[in-house]
Amino acid sequence: MSELSSPISSSRRRRATAIITALLLVLAIGVAGPLAPPTAGAACADGPAAAAQAASYLAAHVTAGGFVPDALGDPSPGSTLQTSLALATAGSGYAAFQRTLVWLRANVDLVTGTGTTADPGQIGYLLLVADAAGADATNFGGVDLVARLAGTLDGFEPGLYGAGDPTFDGVFRQSLALIGLDASGVAPPTAAVDWLVAQQCGTADPTISGGWESYRHVVDPCTAGSTSTFTGVDTNSTAIATSALAALGVEPTSSSAPWFQAVQNSTGGWGFLQGLDDDPNSTALVIQAITATGASATEAPYLVSGGDPLTALLGFQGSGGAFSFPGVPGANDLATQQAVWGAMPRAFPLGLVTFVDAPAAPTTTAPPTTTPPASSVQTTAAFTG
Length: 385
Prior knowledge:
- The protein is mainly alpha-helical and about 375 residues long.
- It has one domain: Glycosyltransferase.
- Helix 3 runs parallel beside helix 6.
- The longest helix has 27 residues.
C-alpha cells in the first residue's frame, strides 16, 4: 500500500461514518422547532402554487424578531437563512422576508462565522439573500461579505473555499460560494472555478460519469453511490455543482444530464444516492440544476413510467403547505425550505425579487400644471443672443 492510498482509505471510512451522522443530524434539525405536522396528501399539483403554500407555512414561523426559532426557542441562524432564501425563491411572504433581513443584518457574524471559522457555504447563501433583496453585499450589516468569503480561499487546499474538512461539503460549499459571487457581480478566481470543474467524475460507467462526489482527492478514482457506505457520487453535490457552473457560464468537462437520467428513480424523483428512494431535498436540487441548464424537468428525457420529477416532489407536501421527509414523521423544515427551489423552479442567483404580496407603492397625484404668462416665459434663445 502506498503512502498516499492509506490516508485516503481512512478518509473514506471516516466519510461513511460521518455522512450517516450528518444525515441523521439534518433530519433532527428538520423536525426541530414548533412546526405543526402537515396533513397527508399533496396540497396541489402546480409548482409555483405549491411553493407559495410552502412559503406561507415558513413565513408563519418567522418571529416578530425576524428569526426562526430552534426547539428551545432560541434563534436558529441556519433555519433563518434557509427560510429567508426560500421566501425569496417563492417570491412570497414579503413581510416575513423583510423581518429576516433585519435579523440577518444584525447577526452576520453569528450566521457566517468569522476568521478561520467563516463558513463559505453560509456566506454564499447570505449573498443570494442580499442579491434577492437588492442589498449591497459589500456592506451588509456593516460587513463586506465578498471580502469575508475571499478570506476563506485556500484555507484547506488551493482553490477551495473554507478551512474546514471538506469531506462532506467540499463541492456543496464551493458551489454556493461561486453562485454567491455571481449574484454579487463578482468574477470568482479562476483557481476556485477550476477546483470545482476538476472534482467532476469522468469514467465509462454511466452511474458515475458526469457526477460529483461530496469531495475527493483528484488522484482518487470516482465511485458509484453506495447505500452501504454512503460514499460515491451523489445527487446533491452533482446538482449544486451543475447549477454553479451554469450560473457562471462555464462548461463542465461533461454534461451531468445523462448521469441524472441514469440514477433517476422509476417514480420520477431522486434520492441522495442511487438506490435510495425519492426525497424532496434531492429531487428539488436536481430540478433546479436541470432548470439552470435551460432544460425542463417536466419534459423528456425526465418523464419516466412512474411520473415526472415535479410530481414526485409535490407528493411530499401536505395540505398545510409543509413538506415531509421520508421516514421522519411530521413537517420537516429543511425539506420545506429546499423543496421550494424545485417547485418554482428558479435557478440561482435569483436577482432582485418582486414579491407577489409586497405592499403596493403609494400613489401620488402630480400637482396641476399651470402655464405662466407669456411675458415671463423664457426660451433658450433668450440666453444665446
